[in-house]
Amino acid sequence: MDKNWNKLRQDFPILAEKMNGESLVYLDNAATSQKPKSVIEAITAFYQKENANIYRGTYALSAKATEAYEGVRQKAADFIGGEASEIVFTKGTTSAINLAAFGYFLWHLKAGDEIALTAAEHHSNLVPWQQVAALTGAKLVFLPLDKKGQVDLKEAEKVMSDRLRLLALAQVNNVLGTEQPVKELAALAKKRGALVLVDGAQAAGHLPVAVTKLGADFYAFSAHKMLGQTGTGVLYGRKELLDQTQPLEFGGEMIREVSKTTATFKPAPQKFEAGSQNVSGVVALGAAIDYLNAIGLDAIKDREKELGQAMAEGLKKAGARVYGQGGGIASFNLPGVHPHDLATALDAQGIAIRAGQHCAQPMMDWLGVKAVARASAAFYNNEADVEALIKGVQAAKEFFNGTR
């Protein structure tokens, strides 16, 4: 695919829209990505040509829909370096982590076992473990972060005891964009007999992922953060672990046989996909993977890092305090201006950013702030978007300081 980034912007219809009378500058990609025409068309084409309930029909259309659905399972496996039998379709990262937490770890942890986390986790990779710990008697321990929000390996090794049974952490932090040394941390955890779950919500689709090289036993990600549709996600789990994981929902095609008093279930991954599935969402994920692969994940990683660094540098020059920058993410505050007020002022100029706690209150505590503004670029953003953000922040600064 052409690496002309400005040309690629034409693949995203929403970027031509206007908001509040201004050209849209979309810089909230860490919350959700925009969708290229190929993904939108894949959804439409499914409903026009393939729509049927999967698995259940004895007719050709159902077989066609089932083939499309299962084909994406293989694509998703190839995308992260796993096997198709290790890919479970979920509603998103949150439901994927909860499936691992309550389907596997709830049954395999006991009092005194330790779960290692960081203060940099999204609530979706913190609260489930709080609940599992409360139910099992397991203990939460937190790995120290350095000034950049990255886990300090030497200090982490001191915290990891022989009681460690799970390391759960985000590959990329959603506030600072910091990429964690997952491979090295996983190796330390496995020396102690622990399993490793990786929250890949901010990583998948933004950099190359190889779950086996990372040392991930479970890996969770969402489609909507990587050009796909909302309500669709993936849980990767090593086959032997999925075989030991209990389903959390029951009914539909996950069932093998049913009597009045008992039921047996199909093997993984089908035993986790109860009821009618979001087939169009899975098809859209397949189209998103095709689009990303055509560009190349290394090129996407480099481009988003370039834009993120440009935002951070420009924000500092505009007088903002930048708390961290990694990948395409730059989180910041404007002294004397609440992040929500700043985001509202930028919205009036057609600039979309996120403001608040970003589902990461412990991260806010670690930063020593109540909230931050977050600008997050994707590869389809450009230098003009960065310039608009910087000018918008400068204008907001002048307005709130009464100098305009």
Domains, number: 2
CATH homology-level superfamily of the largest domain: Type I PLP-dependent aspartate aminotransferase-like (Major domain)
Could you say which overall geometry the principal axes of the C-alpha atoms support?
globular
* Unreliable residue runs: none
What value does the Rg take, in angstroms?
22 Å
* Global mean pLDDT: 97
CATH level-1 class of the largest domain: Alpha Beta
Tell me the CATH topology of the largest domain. Answer: Aspartate Aminotransferase, domain 2
Report how far the terminal alpha carbons are from each other: 45 Å
Please tell me the CATH architecture of the largest domain by its name. Answer: 3-Layer(aba) Sandwich
Task: Please tally the helical runs, counting DSSP H or I stretches of 4 or more residues.
Answer: 14
Q: Which class do the helix and strand fractions yield? A: alpha/beta
Strand order of the largest sheet: 4-10-9-8-7-5-6
- Count the strands? 17
β-strand percent reads 15-25%
Biggest sheet layout? 7 strands, mixed
Helicity level, as a percent range? 40-55%
